[in-house]
Amino acid sequence: MEKQYLNKKNASTLVVACWLAYTLAYVGRLNYNANLIEVITSLSVSKAEAGTVSAAFFMAYGIGQLGNGIISRFYNGKWAIFGALIASAVINFAMPMLPNVEAMRVFWLGNGIAQSFLWCNLIRILAKNLSDQHMPGAIFAMSTTVAVGTFLAYGLSALCVTLFTWRWMFMLSSVTLVVAGIVWMLFLTRVERAGGDFSPNGPKQTGEKLKTSPWLIGSIIVFGLLGLGNGFVKDGVITWTPSLLFERFQLSSAFSIAVTLVIPLLSVLGAWIAKWLTRRHVAHMAQSGLLFGAASALLAVAAGALSSLYLPVMMAILVGIAC
Question: Which of 144, 211, 283, 308 is the most core-located residue (most Cβ within 10 A)?
């Protein structure tokens, strides 16, 4: 029996639901990093101590991603994503009430576990319900979630720090995640009635085995390590840019957070360039690699030749290209 996919209208509804869920989840993921300066000042802790909270999140998130990528076929993705959003909302609500960094570390580790359910299930749901005709648009839409989510997290954090305190950002994030969960269920219920399939896949069916070669395995390892390095650079720059601007250039904490908004804007530009290359050139992967390498080399030369005053600008450009 031929696989039945969603029509254009329902496919668009599903993509919007997935986009909203992951984008708004970023508000409840990066809000701690965005308010790192305020947390350090408010709790009178060192940067190293405050940084362990972020490290706990990413450790739990990374391990959870691997685990959920394997076992996600055994549970219903629709309910898993809803549960993850609500669990993250509860943790965000509790964060500003915690007395010290040690307690924050435990709760934020739990947030990493909760949010690790999202990406693999979203991708599985899209792959299961969208035809080849609708998949390119979904891929591009999902590629913008990180940039838009980062923009919202840092923009709202700057607003909360200016008008209230950093604690309000966690409350706002909690409300945002609850709204995201409700919208997710409303949209997915509509798509499910139209024929959407969010049920578990069950055990992997035996059949023809995928042919592998040492070149394929080696390429996966190399690109995996490159992706790991890119992740360290991207997350490190986004996390510590406000602190660098605050300490090195004596900018206010709110303005330092707001300046960081340029990074996700550059990321969206990078996504548009990648989409343009994909449409116009067959060998777009090779061209993208050459462009990234050339830009990185030029920035490395500029970093050695120019004053440290331009360092934040160069970091923002590099991360924008990398994303």
Answer: 144
